[in-house]
């Protein structure tokens, strides 16, 4: 582990996580290069901001569930390679039903240099502390479609409100939202704004 990077669960007692890219449950259909364990990593600054978000969420009856934090550059390269391959339709219906693989980059869902690789970004949602069930957001993680945009049409009032709740929690804790993905937030004051790390999560 690089200096100043940590496993976020060690800094955030009670946090839930599901590191999708360490599993077969992601848009590539298999574990992604650089993810050797199902843990979420980030900078200590990211952890401190998430601690604020966790406290704000708890006051409203929610907990945080993390899907991704630090992402090795080799994982980003793996995404780009995968997006260039011929379609096999194994994950298309679930993750990108209305676009082609190679449009993931041009439409802003996959970046050649990701804020995740700087250690200052996180993908997450909220759950009800009382039941443990995820809060309805009108779409799943990594659903590459306009429905995932913050200003998406066709959401129920509840789904739209829930996205606003998450956004308010995160923006009040020092994060900035990404317009195309309701789950993606970046630290406004990143410690490494120009550095893209490549060490494995192990």
Automatic annotation (TrEMBL):
Cofactor: Zn(2+)
Record has Protease as a keyword: yes
Residue positions binding Zn(2+): 116, 123, 184
Gene3D superfamilies in alphabetical order: 3.30.1380.10
Superkingdom of origin organism: Bacteria
Protein name from the UniProt record: D-alanyl-D-alanine dipeptidase
Species assigned in the record: Bariatricus massiliensis
Matches recorded under NCBIfam families: dipept_VanX (NF033115)
Site features described as Transition state stabilizer, chain residue numbers: 71
EC number: 3.4.13.22
Family membership noted in the UniProt record: Belongs to the peptidase M15D family.
Keyword Cell wall biogenesis/degradation tagged: yes
Active site: 181
Reactions listed under catalytic activity: D-alanyl-D-alanine + H2O = 2 D-alanine
InterPro entries from the UniProt entry: A_A_dipeptidase (IPR000755), VanX_actinomycetes/firmicutes (IPR058213), Zn_M74/Hedgehog-like (IPR009045)
Keywords: Cell wall biogenesis/degradation, Dipeptidase, Hydrolase, Metal-binding, Metalloprotease, Protease, Zinc
Pfam families to which the protein is assigned, alphabetical: Peptidase_M15 (PF01427)
Cofactor note: Binds 1 zinc ion per subunit.
Top-level EC class as recorded in UniProt: hydrolase
Annotated function: Catalyzes hydrolysis of the D-alanyl-D-alanine dipeptide.
